[in-house]
Amino acid sequence: MRRPTGGTLIFLSLIGAALAAPNDRAVDSFTRDEQSAENRKLPTGQQKGDLPQEIDESRFGEKPEDVAFTAFQIGRFLTAVRLATPLAENGNPAAQTLLGEIYAAGLGVPKDPKKAANWYARAAESGVPAAQFQYALMLLDGRYVEKDEAFADRLLKQAAEGGNADAQFNYAQRLLHHGGVNEQAEAAKWYEAAAQKGVPDAQYAYANYLAGEIDGVTRNMEEARQWMSKAADGGMNAAKVELATWLFSAKGGDRDFERGFRLLQQAARTGNVAAQSQLAKAYIYGYGTEADTVEAASWYITARRAGLQDRELDDLMDGLSNDQKQQALERANRR
């Protein structure tokens, strides 16, 4: 049995590394680097007075009193705190969740994870899925509240059952963390649920489930390719790299060299090392473009500077003339 590879656990909002990173899986001669789940974290970077990029009322359970929520929406965070605090202290879970978000992100107030944890915990008790998810992250972290993985897992499951997409993905990751055949099949269910809600990491993981041979999951390459395509369209570089290999080999559908090449270009230009090495190979074989050994070498030079080594591409370099190597180096230096 294989575990699906994908985005690392998103338990990174207050810590610098995930609890566990999934293993890379080789696909033909292509390799893939690890990808992080970038837009699903506890807010950490907003400056005081900045508005969150998206305001989803449903994450508060029930919308707080209009005046507090309106103040939050327009960036008057101190006013939102002043109005929401008495409501939260009187047990209003929406106001508690609102305060949790404000203190967690440092919106208009100094960032205070302990206060955020307190409000998230109280809202979690009332069944607000977003608060359950965020408090679960803190319980797994253990820096601002006492670490309690068992309680965190229960909260993640509750939040997942409550429809929180981030919790659904992370609960699936936790199931894999625990291992076991039953957990594999259960994880697939939650990956699919989060994938349906548009989480690229979940789409990628579920695609790998469908493409693999996992007990309790029916293999379906056509559906796997559809989900991998959605993850790639969502901007996930690992999905672009994986999908490109499937497009080159007609895995799960028709062969499409041109689209595969475009996907590798997109990912390579963002600095993705695996995509850079694969793009080099696409130039060697003329997949979706004219064969160009100098351009291939230039991309391998770029990838090698980041630490990647590939025997096939080393052989390419050895076969170039000194003039070709110089051209490749100059192209790489211009990136």
TrEMBL record:
Gene3D superfamilies linked to this entry: Tetratricopeptide repeat domain
Annotated organism of origin: Notoacmeibacter ruber
Record's signal peptide: 1-20
Biased composition (Basic and acidic residues): 32-41
Region Disordered, annotated ranges: 32-55
Keywords: Signal
Highest rank taxon of the organism: Bacteria
Protein name as annotated: Sel1 repeat family protein
SMART domains in alphabetical order: SEL1 (SM00671)
Entry-linked Pfam families: Sel1 (PF08238)
